[in-house]
Amino acid sequence: MKTLEQIIAEKLLQIKAIKLQPANPFIWASGWKSPIYCDNRKTLSYPSIRSTIKIELARVICENYPDATAIAGVATGAIAQGALVADLLGLPFVYIRSAPKDHGLENLIEGELKPDSKVVIIEDLVSTGGSSLKAVNAVRNFGCDVVGMVAIFTHGFSVSEKRFKDAKVPLITLSNYNAVIEEAVRTDYITEEDVAILQEWRKDPENWDPDK
């Protein structure tokens, strides 16, 4: 029987929410060269997959953060899925901007978040953890307790793991980098040679360059 992380990995690869191109790397917004690209917003266009992710995120929250009183989604990727999960759980929902609005009330958190709320933050993707923990700080600075974060996928970078540990934020993800690679090998999406490249990249993604 497949594990949840394998099932989610299979679905993400199936709809090309995750693409692997070891021989023709992507360029991330940060400038990093990467053999993997992830856009989990694609899952919203597939009702059955969207529903599976919603249900599993909600299950993780119920099992691990039963005292949660509010759900927050990180803009923009986790807004829709966060709202779906909050609706399923019957909890208030807000979303967190990457920067305050430059007009009106200049909100960083959109919606009504009550002080002292116990918040679970939902992310679509965790890479280095920088933007995710920026959202955590926004909620904490508002006077609320972040009881944990739940995400669809993580690259599993060591820098990210250290940041979450230092920030004392429990992180649970539905799937991860290793599960995606295993599933990609099983379906002949990639070869064993590709696996070596993908594992090498994750050791030092910031400086990885296949042309060197």
Put simply, the count of helices is 7
Low-confidence stretches: none
What is the gyration radius calculated from CA atoms? 17 Å
Main sheet: strand order:
7-6-5-8-9-10
Largest sheet: 6 strands, mixed
Mean pLDDT, all residues: 92
Structural class: alpha/beta
Shape: globular
Order of helices and strands: HEEEEHEHEEEHEHEHH
Strand content: 15-25%
For the termini, the CA-CA separation is 41 Å
Helix percent reads: 25-40%
Can you count the beta strands? Answer: 10
Q: What labels describe this entry?
A:
10 strands; 212 residues; globular
Secondary-structure map with pairings?
Layout: H1 4-14, E1 18-20, E2 26-27, E3 33-34, E4 36-38, H2 47-64, E5 70-74, H3 79-89, E6 93-96, E7 109-110, E8 118-126, H4 130-141, E9 145-154, H5 158-166, E10 171-176, H6 177-186, H7 192-203
Parallel strand pairs: 5-6, 5-8, 8-9, 9-10
Antiparallel strand pairs: 1-4, 2-3, 6-7
Helix pairs in contact: 1-6, 2-3
Summarize the entry for a quick read.
With about 210 residues, the protein is of the alpha/beta class. The protein is built from 7 helices and 10 strands.
Q: What would you say this structure looks like, in words?
A:
With 212 residues, the protein is α/β, with parallel strands linked by helices. Helix content is 39%, strand content 22%. The longest helix is centred in the first third of the chain and has 18 residues.
